[in-house]
Structure formats: C-alpha cells, structure tokens
Inverse folding.
C-alpha cells in the first residue's frame, strides 16, 4: 500500500517539475537594454529607407454567381457591370483618371441598384402578410443581393486604390517590371 502511494507521489512530483520547466522555457525573455550614448535619429541620418515595392499584391476579384446580378422575382433591378481593373504599373495618368471616374460611376449605379431592390421589397411586403414565408424568403434573397452589391462596390474601390498605389510607386525606385 505504501509502495503505491509513494509511486503516485513520485509521478505527481515529476509532473509538477516538468510543468515548471516547460513554463520557465515558455516565458518571454527580457528585452535587450538599449545602448546608451547612441542617438537613434543620428543613425537614420543620411540613410534613406529602401523603397517598398508591392507589385505582387492581390486584390479580390472573384466574380459573383450570375443570378446575383440578374433581375429576381420580376423586380426589374439588374446589377451594374463592375469596371475593368487598371494595371497601375503600366497605365498612363489618363487611364488612372478614367478608372477613377468609372469606379465613381459604378458606385453611383450600385447605389441606384440597391435602392431599386429596397423599393421592390418594401412594395412586396406591404402587399402581403408580414408573416408570410414567401415574403421572408424574398426579403432574404434581396438582402443578399444588396450585400453582394455593397461588397462589389468595396472591391471596385479597393482595386482602384491598388492601381493608384501602383501608379504612384512607378518611378519611385522600384525596379521596372
């Protein structure tokens, strides 16, 4: 009996010691003390930062299913076509400005599309009973279409922002692609 108790106590002690050792190893090391007498501003003097070139940046451009942009339940609301992506590394200033205008026009058309869907859903819900399942399914699908439209608007804006960033980086010390 004493042999079993001693064995159990020995195992518990071994587990406790190994836990303490693992905890000690996992603890973060203290930060190194900064060197005294060295002025960090003086270190950076005369040494410009290297250019940051983001040529491999990927912006989400996956297409949505076709049914999302088409008229649903005869609502006569069709999603506008997303503007074409502009490669800022090779685009001219005029192409960037045209891309910005196309993105702004797309945002306005997208807002009109979303308003069309909201108006349609409001009219349909006012004509039917509020608890009718078909009206709830219609509202859910139409809300999804609005969400996708808003996401596409953000995608178009992000793509244009990436194009502008690439255009601005062109000639800033980045190697030619």
């Amino acid at each position: 009996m004493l042999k079993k108790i001693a064995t159990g106590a020995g195992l518990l002690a071994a587990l406790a010691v190994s836990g303490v050792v693992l905890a000690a190893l996992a603890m973060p090391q203290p930060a190194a003390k900064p060197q005294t007498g060295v002025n960090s501003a003086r270190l950076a003097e005369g040494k410009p930062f290297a250019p940051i070139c983001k040529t491999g940046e990927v912006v989400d451009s996956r297409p949505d299913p076709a049914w999302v942009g088409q008229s649903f339940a005869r609502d006569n609301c069709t999603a506008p076509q997303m503007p074409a992506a502009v490669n800022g590394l090779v685009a001219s200033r005029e192409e960037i400005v045209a891309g910005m205008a196309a993105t702004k026009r797309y945002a306005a058309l997208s807002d009109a599309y979303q308003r069309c869907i909201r108006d349609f859903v409001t009219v349909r819900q006012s004509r039917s009973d509020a608890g009718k399942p078909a009206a709830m399914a219609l509202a859910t699908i139409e809300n999804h279409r609005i969400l996708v439209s808003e996401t596409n608007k953000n995608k178009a804006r992000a793509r244009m922002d990436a194009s502008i960033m690439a255009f601005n980086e062109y000639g800033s010390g980045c190697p030619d692609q």
Observations:
- Residues 110-177 form one domain.
- Helices lie at 2-26, 40-44, 66-69, 93-127, 133-169.
- The mean pLDDT is 76.
